[in-house]
Design a protein that fits this description.
There is one protein chain. With 806 residues, the chain is α+β, with helices and mostly antiparallel strands. The chain is built from 20 helices and 39 strands. The strands form 10 sheets. Strands 27-30-31-35-34-33-32 form a 7-stranded mixed β-sheet. Strands 11, 13, 14, 21, 22 and 23 form a 6-stranded mixed β-sheet that branches. It has a 5-stranded antiparallel β-sheet with strand order 5-4-3-6-9. A hairpin with a 2-residue loop joins strand 33 and strand 34. Helix 5 crosses helix 6 and helix 19 packs across helix 20.
């Protein structure tokens, strides 16, 4: 929002400098990002008139102008501009004048002819050329015919003004207007607020006989006011209005359109002017658009509509996109004589969504998105009709159409002074509190020790008591709140059990060489096909977003592994062909009969390629067993030493190379090599191994607290046991039998060799285990260890028909 310092003084007497005003506004919570003077660097440039133009004798593209700035003396100036004519009033920079770009005008000779100055373009005067008429954007600035001579151009063009650029927070839509800012300034300075008047003169013709307004979708349009003016004359708006519009960053067009923009800047109410005679049956219908219908907007672009967009229609079809932009077919042109003024309240969310979908953002949409004053629609229509009548003539129809299905009720909030003191840490008198709120146009009544505060409709952001306390704090002055030391009971900050578990998991995985990533919770439904999930898979039942950013982020994820595969795919495409990543995040499952989905916290890991080699260690493939080692390290570290890996089938994983992670007969996760089709779908160079663990199931599993154990005093005894068993026998089952048969003195079991080939019968395998025996109270004898080893061998023989390998 750009605020003109001079314009602001129409509504409030500002007794301080622009910079001090900016500082005071910022301290009151209305941040001023920048203050700049429009006429910076301009001196000795005045208005003048071209008396005579002659062709330059030595240059085809130059002309010699005889110019006067006082009506008597003539000044010869050579120019290459093609848009100047005899009689034109123009800005003249005489010898010695200075321009914003630092240029100092000197007497010069151009191709043999003396030039005693320069005719100035808008750009040379520091004016944004996009705010000038098209015919003046590249040439000399042509001034109105009634421009007085020898007037300082800075004053004439309104460049003797400071612009305050506000950086507003989304909740302060009320400050998107001059009146809104003036209200803040009046409260800060203790001055009176002067509201603009609109003494409109109405004709005898009733507006109900001229136009009709129907609202079909009142959830998107809560109020629609309209006025009709007949017999207007289209022309340029006066210089003062054009100056104010340009200062706010809006290009003047004509007197009717300029008034709608002026009132929008003044009151914060976006308006639109329709050519009344182009509206079929003079009937306004506010409704949702129909799918695949189109409208050509004022910028000449054809735009496709859908049923979620609100449009303004006549009896034939759409004539404007509500709150965003008008339609070309009903625009005001030089031939327009009758006007219908629209002043409405449109749903902020609807306008924001429509603006984004159409890729069309305007000054109007920006205000509707932040929320406008629903109580100010008629006032703005009256003000616009009054100004149009003053600038374009015409007769206003008697009355105003005000379609307001459900009038807004002003909120009343109880404010407790002791609550103000409690939150701000400072005692403010009740009378002072009342004065602050009253200065902001809140209505205040006393109720015992408390205050009843009625919130005006232009402040929809104030809804509860603490909002009022914030208003008091910012107007009282944050800098007046004294510094105090923190007091009160203190508590030790620490992680709870689940937070500590997640912290430990991250530390272990990072220590094992994995990198943590964080990905979006929104994914494409295509990932289900990429992961080979069957049609009836429960993971295909995903929560769909009502307003997705794109098809690629249209559903909430039910699995986490695809997100990690996309990370590795992106890296792989950039020649980083190895990597191991993990993420701890939530997945979402719809719940029948429930508005909200079930959320589960899960851990996912993906290993791809090889470890990085060093001068000492060779590169190692991150295969199933590498990943299994990481998972075992993780589970052991967090206290789950009895986890088992059992064969498992999953359509996303390689058949025969997949295991379920089981804890006390409950599967908490899956580990395995990804199916070759999945690897191909994600265009990965190497085989990939993935793991997914439900952390909520893991947290629910019983994990014994670490107990201190004394270091053993007595030596351990190693024994190796090589057996031949059928190849379908599972290693985990054999380990379970060994542990049960080994007794208390068996401390560790480890597989150190698996062999199939010569010397091993077909259909069998040789599997070797390393056994560690140790007693806490004595040195074990060979006979004792041999007896226990033999017991283990017999148990394996009985359970699996295992034979000792000889």
């Amino acid at each position: 929002m750009k605020v003109s310092y001079k314009w602001l003084q129409d509504y409030v007497d500002v007794s301080i400098s622009p910079q001090e005003l900016a500082d005071r506004l910022t301290m009151a919570g209305v941040a001023v990002e920048n203050v700049h003077y429009l006429g910076e660097g301009i001196s000795s440039v005045v208005t003048g008139q071209i008396l005579q133009i002659n062709q330059h004798p030595n240059a085809d593209k130059l002309v010699i102008c005889q110019v006067t700035t006082d009506g008597e003396d003539r000044i010869q100036i050579v120019t290459g501009a093609t848009n100047v004519r005899e009689g034109h009033k123009v800005p003249v920079a005489k010898v010695g004048a200075k321009l914003p770009n630092g240029l100092v005008i000197k007497k010069a000779k151009l191709r043999g002819e003396v030039s005693n100055g320069m005719l100035c373009s808008g750009q040379e005067l520091g004016i944004d050329t996009s705010l000038l008429p098209p015919d003046q954007q590249n040439g000399i600035l042509i001034l109105p015919e009634d421009t007085p001579l020898n007037m300082n151009i800075v004053e004439f063009l309104g460049l003797d003004d400071y612009i305050l650029e506000l950086d507003l927070t989304p909740n302060r839509g009320d400050c998107m207007s001059m009146i809104g800012v003036a209200r803040e300034v009046a409260a800060i300075l203790g001055a009176d607020l002067k509201l603009p008047e609109a003494p409109l003169e109405e004709g005898d013709e009733e507006i109900e006989n001229l136009a009709k307004v129907d609202i079909e979708d009142s959830d998107l349009c809560r109020r629609y006011a309209a006025r009709v003016l007949k017999g207007v004359k289209i022309g340029p708006s006066p210089a003062w209005m054009q100056q104010r519009l340009r200062a706010a960053g809006i290009r003047p067009i004509n007197n009717i359109v300029d008034v709608t923009n002026y009132v929008m800047l003044e009151l914060g109410q976006p308006l639109h002017a329709f050519d009344y005679d182009k509206l079929a049956d003079h009937h306004i219908i506010v409704r949702r658009a129909e799918n695949d219908k189109t409208i050509t907007t004022l910028d000449g672009e054809e735009r496709k509509l859908n049923e979620n967009m609100l449009v303004i229609c006549d009896a034939r079809g759409p004539v404007a996109v509500a709150g965003v932009m008008g339609g070309l077919d009903s625009e005001v042109t030089d031939e327009t004589v009758n006007i219908l003024i629209e002043s409405a309240y449109f749903n902020p969310v609807s306008v924001r969504r429509t603006s984004r979908l159409l890729g069309l953002r305007s000054e109007s949409s920006a205000r509707f998105e932040k929320g406008i004053d629903i109580g100010g629609c008629v006032r703005a229509a009256d003000r616009a009709a009054y100004l149009m009548q003053q600038l374009a003539g015409g007769t206003a129809a008697k009355g105003v159409i005000d379609n307001y299905p459900n009038p807004a009720v002003e909120k009343t909030i109880k404010l407790r002074p002791e609550r103000v003191e409690h939150l701000l840490g400072i005692s403010i008198e009740k009378e002072k509190i009342s004065n602050i709120l009253t200065s902001l146009q809140f209505k205040v009544q006393k109720e015992g020790d408390n205050l009843l505060v009625t919130v005006p409709t232009f402040r929809p952001d104030v809804s509860i008591e603490v909002d009022l306390i914030e208003e008091i704090a910012r107007m009282y002055g944050y800098n007046q709140v004294p510094d105090t030391l923190i007091y009160g009971p203190t508590t030790q900050g620490k992680r709870n059990e689940s937070q500590q578990l997640i912290y430990d998991i991250k530390n272990v995985l990072v220590g094992c060489g994995l990198t943590e990533v964080i990905t979006f919770g929104f994914v494409s439904p295509k990932v289900f096909d990429l992961m080979n999930l069957p049609v009836d898979s429960r993971f295909r039942s995903a929560v769909k977003l009502q307003n997705p950013l794109s098809e690629e982020q249209s559903v909430m994820r039910t699995v986490l592994v695809p997100n990690l595969l996309e990370v590795l795919q992106r890296n792989n495409n950039r020649q980083i062909q190895s990597g191991a990543v993990f993420e701890i995040g939530r997945v979402f499952y719809p719940q029948e009969g429930e508005d909200l989905p079930e959320e589960r916290l899960v851990l996912a890991m993906v290993f791809h390629g090889y470890t990085e080699k060093s001068w000492r260690d060779p590169s190692e493939e991150m295969d199933f067993f590498f990943a299994k080692g990481v998972v075992e390290k993780l589970l052991t570290t967090i206290g789950l030493k009895d986890a088992r890996f059992i064969p498992h089938k999953d359509p996303s994983f390689h058949p025969g190379r997949t295991a379920a992670i089981e804890v006390k007969d409950k599967i908490i996760g899956v580990l395995g090599e990804l199916h070759p089709d999945v690897v191909e779908n994600y265009e990965l160079t190497h085989r990939a191994v993935a793991c997914k663990i439900d952390l909520e199931d893991l947290m629910a599993a019983e994990r014994p607290k670490p107990q201190y154990e004394r270091l053993p005093k007595f030596p351990a005894v190693d024994r190796d046991l090589a057996l031949v068993v059928k190849e379908e026998i599972k290693t985990q089952d054999m380990i379970d039998v060994i542990i049960n048969a080994g007794g208390k003195i068996l401390k560790k079991v480890k597989v150190f060799d698996v062999y199939q080939g010569e010397q091993v019968p077909e259909g069998h395998k040789s599997q070797a285990f390393s056994l560690l025996f140790q007693a806490p109270d004595r040195t074990l004898k060979d006979e004792e260890v041999a007896k226990q080893t033999d017991k283990i061998a017999r148990a394996l023989k009985k359970e699996f028909d295992a034979e000792l390998r000889k």
